[in-house]
Amino acid sequence: MQKLAEICVRRPIFATVIILSLVVVGIFAYGQLGLDRFPKVDIPTITITTRLVGAAPEEIETDITDKIEEAVNTISGIDQLQSVSSEGTSQVIVSFVLEKNLDVAAQEVRDKVNTILANLPKDADPPLIQKIDPDAIPVIAIALSGPAPIRDITEYADKKLRRRLESISGVGQVVIVGGRPRQINVVADTAKMTAVGVTTAQLVAALQSQNVQIPGGTSPSAPTAASSRRASSPISRSARRTATS
Fold first, then answer.
1. CATH domain 45-134 topology
2. Residue pLDDT, tens place only, 125-137
3. Which of 6, 91, 132, 183 has the most crowded Cβ, counting Cβ within 10 A?
């Protein structure tokens, strides 16, 4: 090192050329550096989402969020535990230390959540456990509008546009947000229900048990085997009369 210093002092032009060479090489190398807008990063974070339609935030926190937090809180390597309880939805966010393997953490969370499934409300949807993946962030959003009713636009987006987009190479998932899917509203007349002796619970049970298809097995026949399904009988006349106003 001392020898190099002596040469640079005796030959300043040589030292200047070396420095300029390093600067030129650095500028050239800087232009060749790769740039990734969405780098592959494994963030050790797991989200647990549970839905209970119609439940108040206080009920969600007491019956779902607190139980899930108590179950997953015993997992090793947790850095931060957060939760959000809103109307009809519970979301628990579990952040682990960077050294924690994401796949192992997800499996441990599933095992802990499975132990408390029996303690959750029976009307609640099964908890949805997801790993936060930056690659799953939507890269394009399409808004639909037109003179047609919102239900027709939703039907077009679901039945036609979504399927066309999913068939494109490289598309992983297409999610429809908003819209108004088709539904049937049953307006019950309490006076008529009382007159015929039908309760609201009986009406709900009748609607749930009717108009369903049940597998009926297979019927082997050469050269193919045909599967059969048995449809339930239509809703009874008294229940149908009671359900309408």
1. Alpha-Beta Plaits (3.30.70)
2. 999 998 887 666 6
3. 91
